Predict the 3D structure of the following.
Amino acid sequence: MKSENAQAAAPPAGKPSMARVVERNIEALLKRQQEEDQQKCWQDRLADAVTAFTGSITFVFIHLVLFGLWIFWNLGWLGLKPFDPSFVVLAMFASVEAIFLSTFVLISQNRTAALAEKRAELNLQVSLLGEHEITRLVILVTEMARKMNIEAANDPEIPELAKDVQPEHVLETIEKKQEQMEQTK
């Protein structure tokens, strides 16, 4: 029974194995993404659909054909009576379209930026937790090394590494360094 489970969990031949925790994290992130997609209101879905379509080569080709026909027709090259010889209607149409398209793109970008900010916050929290855990491990391993009389336990950098990182101090330091760099420009 145990060997059957081991075979079921083993990756296919020729593929490297992945830690189960990585697979779990991927599944959790994908599930979260699906939940967020399902929670979108119809306006956000519309904005995403319009933005996706207008960012496609199909959209470009449709505009090349439509604008090309419009221009050829109104230059008289198709043998038809021009309906917009000064191209004022074409310019107005293109301007109105640009206003709406830019609005849809901005809506999508704003939501994407908000998601990126949430992910950055999550990344920061995970990094701070990891830093705290590593600090505790440094303290624990150093104490073990001292009890075992291992010379590396006396490394002068260890007390500095054993201090918890204070994010607000890091931010203050970054801001001060940036101000100093800007003043030297």
Summary: The CA atoms of residues 48 and 141 lie 51 Å apart. Residues 1-8 have pLDDT under 50 and may be disordered.
